[in-house]
Amino acid sequence: MDNTQTPKKLDKKTLSKSFHLWFWGALTCFSQEHMQTFGYLCSMLPVLKKLYPEHKDQENAIKAYTAFFNTNPMLGSVIIGITTSMEEARANGKGIDGETINDMRAGLMGPVAGIGDSLIDGTLIPILLGISLGMSQNGSPVGAIFYIIVWTLLAYFGQKFLFFRGYELGDKAVSFLVGKQGAAVRRAVGIVGGMVVGGVLASWVNVQTSLKLYNSNGKAFLDLQKQLDSIFPGLLTVVVTLFCWWLMSKKHVSAIWTMIILVVISFIGVLCGFFNPGLSY
Amino acid sequence: MTINLFQAAILGLFACLCSNSCMAGQAVGNYTIGRPLVGGLVCGLVLGDLKLGIACGVAMQLVYIALVTPGGTVSADVRAISYIGIPLAMVAITSQGLAPLGTSAANLAKSVGTLVGTVGTVMYYAVATLNLVWQSFGWKDVENGKLDKLYGVNFGWPWISHILFSFLPTMLFTYFGSTAVTALRNALPMNGIPMKTLFTVGGMLPCVGIAILLRQIVNKTADFIPFLVGFTLCASLSLNLVSVTVVSLLFAIVMYEIEMSKGTKTVAASGEDDFDDDEEEDI
């Protein structure tokens, strides 16, 4: 350990450059084999250049980031933040080596992907989109513009906040992410997600049957849709959705095949008069 | 409605910016420009029918409200949905003479969008595969210590993948596709079986999107309850989405408190009996 020189410190400008490289470039050079690896390499470059004046040291340091990396890019910015602080500690000779940094990265990308996909893609965005769709229902651009502004601000400042929190907390951030409080927050947000998804389904999707049985006078004695609505409004919509869920999660049918199965069901339904969109020129 | 070469080229440029691996960054590219709702705004402006564009965007956004891409696997490609699907749906709706804001227009848009989006995954995998070439350049640069060249690998070369597999296909599909869509109108009458099926499927497709979301949320059977409560609040009590969100926050707070107090009990219990911490957590 060499404590004769002043400890190296990352300034705000370098960190901000690193963040912006991740924000704009996390997935620009994506391949199935390396996924976000190159986005990560690029965002670490300014940090390495700042910490290691010698080119040779930069070359050695970057080796820690050549391993495969893939996570939820939004929440993932916290991982970049954490590694910048660990890299700073390594440059100051605080007993951290490339392997420690890599273990941390590899250990975090899975949980962060899971949390990020369910919190951001699975909860936050559907809520935001659900509200925006309502505003654009009559063909007005307000909803789309609302989404653009709110989401871009949330994504930019949210990711920036996560990045800098990651840098400040360093490896201490890990305990929050996979700790008890983190789990409680996830459970709570899961409730919001579940209810909102149910609400989105009820507000926007409406599967209806046109099946009616007529008696000899030509009067309908059975209007199936009315019967179903008197049991539970929107019953068919829920049934079709749960059927799709069952196919995909219990029978491991892919989304594309589920859609093809729906095509077959619709075709049969149209043939026997169960479904009829009732259109003509 | 027709699409000229210049309009097709603009749509092609937007296609490069979005998708899952995109040139405008994840947050702005994939999550903003790529969303069908935003794509509807862009296509509406480019093709000169804002109302119809938004209506198509709203319809398709419903199908893809949950575009989660776990582990980089995609079942539909947003650049194809938003910048090929929406323009073609707009042409189809105009040529069928449907009311832009009607249910039938929306269902037609959903069918067209889903078809194009599913086929469009080819574009996604093509770009990702060609990127391997630029990445091999990158590995050489790392080896030889030419670190500055990595910026080019990440931000420059992938443009070539996108020009080949995003820009050109989008431009050609929208330019020639609009003529094909108009011709198709005469071949398939609206009250025939194929069109009826297409519209029925269009009405059901959002269920797949919601089911994908449910897969994320539901781990055990009891997790269906919040979903069904939310559905009932909207379907039976006619609350809107903001109201449902507010109601759900109450349950979220209760859940948070329960989860947190659960934790402290375990700690207290482990203090009384001299059990191992790990064993306590298992209980």
Secondary-structure element sequence of chain A? HHHHHHHHEEHHH
The proportion of residues in beta strands of chain B is: under 5%
Greatest chain-chain contact: A-B, 121 and 122 residues
Tally the structural domains of chain B.
2
Continuous helix count of chain B: 13
User: Averaging pLDDT over every residue of chain A, what do you get?
Assistant: 83
Helix fraction of chain B by DSSP (H/I, runs of at least 4): over 70%
Sheet-strand content of chain A, in percent, reads under 5%
Largest sheet of chain A at a glance? Answer: 2 strands, antiparallel
As for the number of domains of chain A, it is 2
Note the total helix count of chain A. Answer: 11
Low-confidence stretches of chain B: 267-283
Strand segment tally of chain B? 0
Instruction: Give the CA-CA distance, first to last residue of chain A.
Output: 83 Å
Segments of chain A where pLDDT lies below 50 for 5+ residues? none
User: What is the overall shape of chain B?
Assistant: flat
Rg from Cα of chain B: 24 Å
Descriptive overview:
The complex is a heterodimer of chains A (281) and B (283). Chain A has 281 residues and is mostly helical. Chain A folds into two domains: 12-201, no CATH class; 205-271, no CATH class. In chain A, helix 1 (12-25) packs antiparallel against helix 2 (37-51). Chain A has helices at residues 12-25, 37-51, 55-62, 73-91, 98-135, 142-169, 173-178, 180-204, 224-231, 235-250, 255-271, and strands at 212-214, 220-223. The longest helix of chain A has 38 residues, at 98-135. The termini of chain A are far apart. In chain A, strands 1-2 form a two-stranded antiparallel ribbon. Chain B is mostly helical. Chain B has two domains: 5-217, no CATH class; 219-283. Chain B is 78% helix and 0% strand. Chain B is flat, with a radius of gyration of 24 Å. The termini of chain B are far apart. Chains A and B meet through helix 1, helix 2, helix 3, helix 5 and helix 6 of A and helix 2, helix 3, helix 4, helix 6 and helix 7 of B.
